[in-house]
């Protein structure tokens, strides 16, 4: 949905797994991707804040990620600082 430029629906779609699988780091990354700035939809201060919180949560959860998932989560840790 992000690639179809429906960012609001994409954010909602990534929110759903967060309630049923709260330790699913990729869902937090998806929220950050959906609400963060992009070429066609500049983010507001509130959306920047939401994106940063989601990245921080994804980075925190990635510490317990499987060995296969750790390379994917490495960029989150650098963005969360």
Describe this structure in words.
By secondary structure, the protein is mostly helical. The chain is 65% helix and 0% strand. It is built from four helices and no strands. The longest helix has 18 residues. It is globular. The termini are far apart. The mean pLDDT is 76.
Any key phrases for this structure?
65% helix, mainly alpha, 81 residues, globular
Summarize the structure.
By secondary structure, the chain is mostly helical.
What radius of gyration results from the CA coordinates?
A: 12 Å
| Mean pLDDT across residues | 76
Number of strands: 0
Task: Note the total helix count.
Answer: 4
Task: Summarize the helices and strands and which ones pair or pack.
Elements: H1 7-20, H2 25-35, H3 45-62, H4 70-79
Helix pairs in contact: 1-2, 2-3, 3-4
């Amino acid at each position: 949905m992000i690639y179809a430029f429906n960012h609001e629906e994409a954010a909602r779609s990534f929110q759903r797994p967060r309630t049923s699988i709260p330790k699913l780091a990729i869902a937090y990354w998806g929220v950050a991707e959906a609400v963060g700035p992009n070429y066609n939809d500049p983010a507001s201060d509130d959306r920047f804040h939401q994106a940063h919180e989601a990245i921080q949560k994804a980075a925190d959860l990635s510490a317990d990620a499987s060995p296969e998932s750790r390379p994917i989560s490495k960029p989150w840790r650098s963005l969360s600082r």
